[in-house]
Design goal:
Bound molecules: 2'-O-acetyl adenosine-5-diphosphoribose
Oligomer: single chain
Order of helices and strands: EHHHHEHEEEEHEHEHEH
Radius of gyration: 18 Å
Structural class: alpha/beta
Strand content: 15-25%
Number of strands: 9
Helix content: 25-40%
Number of helices: 9
Length: about 240
């Protein structure tokens, strides 16, 4: 199998999607058996959906909290934590996953660009998000302790902006390490921006780009220099030189 050359100064940016958690037993989003099957995305993952039926939204994310708490990080998550141990500050992991498995595997330089499943925040006031492992399957729905309005999961929903500081961090990693940077996307279908655009940004700053995916989407894969087809838990432990 191919191996990624990582020199003594190489900076590595990794972007993960739902595929890296599949071998832990968590469903991905798209396709048969996916998390969106049986749901209209905008009903459970948009501010409008929450305004229309907060209980449905909380049921969806409560089920996901239960599933994520019941599983363990897999060999793919662990391989990335080990790589970070070796590289230290020459490593950045931007994950679209909200399941917390990277941190549980030991990754530290992680930015959760789509939010955190185990955090809640007020839908109205500006109190910061807080850790919340509870499930809300039945009424009453949770309320903000400060202003009394509805609490919501701290997830970036469709139609909402990502934290610009996260996006800047990714861009600066490419920019600051121009010429000696490797970008690796893992287990993502490349359908949701801005994460799907990281590969183009990486290339514009001269990074070498890799995609690791069990069933890479053709058009997305065409934008990478190298594509490794396979399960991330099997591929990643062998991929880093
Ligand atoms: P998707 O469900 O769109 O894609 C999952 C990818 O993982 C697919 O390309 C699969 O081929 C691949 N895959 C499955 N099992 C794998 C394995 N064992 N090893 C490697 N790859 C595997 O999930 P994402 O691309 O993460 O957003 O979806 C992006 C965003 O869209 C999510 O963060 C979510 C969703 O709507 C929000 O909830 C805001």
């Amino acid at each position: 199998m191919d191996r990624i050359e990582i020199g003594p100064k190489t900076f590595v940016v990794v972007a993960t999607g739902a595929g890296i958690s599949a071998e832990s037993g968590l469903a991905t989003f798209r396709g048969a058996g996916g998390l969106w099957e049986g749901h209209r995305v905008e009903e459970v993952a948009s501010p409008e959906g929450f305004a229309a039926d907060a209980q449905l939204v909380w049921r969806f994310y409560s089920e996901r909290r239960k599933s994520a708490l019941a599983v363990e990080p897999n060999a793919g998550h662990l391989a990335l934590a080990k790589l970070e141990e070796k590289l230290g500050d020459r490593f950045l992991l931007a994950t679209q996953n909200v399941d917390g498995l990277h941190r549980r595997a030991g990754s530290k330089r992680v930015i959760a660009i789509h939010g955190e499943l185990f955090e809640s925040r007020c839908a109205q006031c500006f109190e910061p998000p807080f850790e919340d492992k509870q499930t809300y399957l039945e009424p009453p729905m949770p309320k903000c302790q400060v202003c009394g309005m509805a609490l919501r999961p701290n997830i970036v929903w469709f139609g909402e902006a990502l934290d610009h500081r996260h996006l800047r961090q990714v861009r600066e990693a490419f920019e600051d390490h121009r010429g000696d940077c490797v970008f690796i996307a893992i287990g993502t279908s490349g359908q949701v921006y801005p994460a799907a655009g990281f590969v183009d940004q990486a290339r514009s700053f001269g990074a070498k780009t890799w995609l690791v995916d069990l069933d890479p989407a053709h058009e997305f894969a065409a934008r990478f220099h190298h594509v490794v087809r396979g399960k991330s838990g099997e591929v990643l432990p062998q991929l880093f030189g």
